[in-house]
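Why does residue order matter? Because the sequence determines the fold. Keep that principle in mind as you read this record.
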Amino acid sequence: MRYEVIREIFNKCSGNQMRDVFFEEIETDDPARYVAERFAKYNITEETAEGADERVFLIELEGLLQKMTFTKA
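Structure:
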């Protein structure tokens, strides 16, 4: 299945509260497995709301919070 993925990296610097945002399309049967394999050594939490059309994962990566949102393409 093809997904559009938005990856947001939240900046902790007090002088720059903007976040880096990346867009990509990926092919996977399981977004949770994709995230687990890509960020294997980091803390991953799924924050998908029940009945939502998209799947959301939070990744804590060496003190930086990242968010990946998967939407079927």
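The helical segments are 31-38.
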